[in-house]
Amino acid sequence: MSTSPTTDAPPAPAEAWHTLPTDDVLDRLGTSTDGLGPDEAARRLAADGPNELTDRGSKPAWRILYEQVTAVMVLILIGASLLSLALGKFLEAGAIGAIVVLFAILGFVQEHRAEQAIAALRRMAVPSVRAVRDGRQVEIAATELVRGDLVALEAGSVVPADVRLVEAVDLAVQEAALTGESEPVEKSTAPVEGADVPLGDRRGMAYSGTQVTAGRAVGVVVAPGMATELGRIADLLQGVESEPTPLQSRLDTVGTQLAGIGLVVALRVVAMGVAGGEELADLVLTAISVAVAVIPEGLPAVVTFTLAIGAQRMLRREALIRKLPAVETLGSVTVICSDKTGTLTENRMTATVLDIAGGRLVLDQVEAAEAVAAPGSPGAAALAVGVLCNDGDLRVGSTGDLETIGDPTETALLLAAHRAGGGGDARRTAVPRTAERPFDSDRKRMSTVHGPLGGAVPALAALPQDVPLALVKGAVDGLLGRAAHVHAEDGVVALDDGWRQRVTQANDALAADGMRVLGVAYRELPSTDAVADAEEDLVLLGLVGIIDPPRAEVRDAVATCRAAGIRPVMITGDHPLTARAIATELGIAEADDRVVTGVELERMTAEELDAVVVDASVFARVSPEHKLRIVDALQRRGDVVAMTGDCVNDAPALKRADIGVAMGITGTDVSKEAADVVLRDDNFSTIVAAVEEGRVIYDNLRRFVSFAVAGNLGKIIVMLGWPLPFLLGGSSEATTVALLPLQLLWLNLMTDGLLGLSMGMEPAEPGVMRRGPHAPSAGLWHGGLGLRTAWVGALIGALSLGVGLVAYVVGNESWQSMVFTTLAFAQVFQALGTRSTTASLWSVGPLSNRVLVAIAGLVVALQLAALYTPLSSFLGLDALDAAELGICVGLGAVVLVALECVKAVRRRVSARGAAAAARR
Ligand code: ATP
Description:
Bound molecules: adenosine-5'-triphosphate
Structural class: alpha+beta
């Protein structure tokens, strides 16, 4: 194979990119280290299509339809329709067929909408990447990458396409998704011989879908989208998962139980008919339809729809749901463990204080400005080290303002130096870095290696000029352990106990003011390759105090959490005193509360930790691995834990937590993939808002299930209860059924289908965040819901059966229409009466759920149409006169009155309980 760098050489086959030197690769792809121009990128994007895998995650429409019409219940109905046809009952056959189609359409529309909502969420989760175009770094969606684009990779990135590495620093990539190898593989830019070496050995390549675990790199895209290695095995693709939620599984059980009941009712009807000498064929048809009518067909679709609507509502509040079960689990969260930086604070870092051997300088004061601007001063040197040992960037934006690129901690240092008059870029070009050890949250520091300064940077005149230097910045406690000297006013002196104490005190004082503190240090190196020794035997230059104000809205969110029985816990890599200062300011902890440090945590046994997590609200100087232990300990206590995380090492804790929460802005791709929820604004308050939505959705789902089950219970009572009085009286009327199959199916369509849908849209009940979380193990019917469902069902059944029996006895021929109408109105009123579990319909606002009001209006209109239009002959109904209709509506309203009375009594009882508790 040719490796000549000519541009007109045929492109190398995909497998061979790893064998080519990087210059060749760039040539062959028609690109350079400046990347592609925007026009060429657009042309390639149009030609090759977006960089994405064909979406196999979502269900196509035909599949949803297929699943709808092959659901057991629908199959039974289709069977019933065919049976009617065979028996020559064309009207029934047609009608049941029509209902099948209606249910199928309803189910299809609901599920299709839910699928589309999930697909939209999935599209939103597309990560953005830093590419180089026309020599400038630009942030673009990963889907816009094309062959020949240069893309930056760093710890936590998921590699967005197959790339040949053109720059790599300490790069390690976990390729388990492709090779099954779970240990990260070290990568470099060197070509690897042999076109067909296995993927795992192609060290110069990084493949789409694998995860960068350490270091940083720049790669040129050699294959995007379906042309990637991952694209070839696209079955591995995991999008937003849509496994059934715990509640959905529980509802399946309810469905099965109801199906069982339906079967019993059906058999009962057949038995009674046979006893009465009816024709078996008729009976079978009636029985099948009755059984189906007892089952709430709308249930699965309504549940899916409600969850998807819930996910959309959460999105409006900036929480992106990646896994649907999270919508429900969020409602039962008992502890929210949150990072500090960016989530509780604004991540608007400003370096305000410089503490050097000569004392403390407050950076916005004139004397300080002079001190740090003076070439050769320790202050100037400390700031210059902060600029050189730094991956951030400053740029003049299109509006003429200074824009920052990169980690806010780093850009705070650049801005401080900029204000002091230091030209960051010039310094960086004057002394380019020859090696580096990137920052990570475990070491909590970063270092860069540079050749001899040779006087190129006046601000660093105080440092040695003719040997290679390592420049280091990081957490002060860590640096103290690695420093042997300190750069005092009159030169470098040994870091004795006195100095150590002084530095520690300065560090503590800054941290106690809520500041993030970075130490800056350097050391002389024997050569520019000696990067391994960069962080030993350091000379401490000074400390920089960086303020990051708490987010204004978080204080209220913390208070909301407490009222809602949720404990907020801060977990941070920062100093314990910084952590405590911020936690106290936000109301997460009291000033004298214990702060548990990572070091203490490390020494604790599982039992000790279990005892500590009961009331510790602040964990400081922790590493990502500690988060996993904290989650475990909380879960052992029975807590339902939401845990935030942003870096690659947070992924295990995010996976382990009941709700893993990743940061949309600052989070790494890996953390987002591991999370259930992504906060689009990185804000703690958003978690609390999502919890509230979770509670509302859970309430609404339970409300719907109770509604559907109570209605069907009413129908069972009517169907089973009807013949009893006649049987007892020895009358042959026993064989008459109370309601015809078509009538039952119609009722189900109105209630479970239409009214059920609108219940998912019920707004939050007042006080939803002033009660404790529900226990996930509490089951569906807890809190008296089972009892309420039973009595409401019994009431609906008794009223409908009662009106029918009385009408029948007095010889009213429209008795069946009255049973039918009473059942329908009872459920409309039930829907209104159960809008809140405690508050009256009046205080909730009768019109506050407009969709429900509109649908209830529609149901009433359809119900009247069933009685007074030609539909009535189709359904076998009679037009009721005004008095009869009035009786049915009045009886239906009894359900609302009863529900309101029970709620009023409950309110009284709980108010009395609260008053008694207050007196005690
Ligand atoms: P939080 O949990 O509050 O979001 P974190 O766990 O992300 O914080 P890290 O970013 O890991 O905290 O920072 C921990 C410590 O590491 C800081 O206190 C600081 O001293 C040091 N540090 C942070 N960023 C850098 C950086 N870019 N370079 C060097 N040291 C840093």
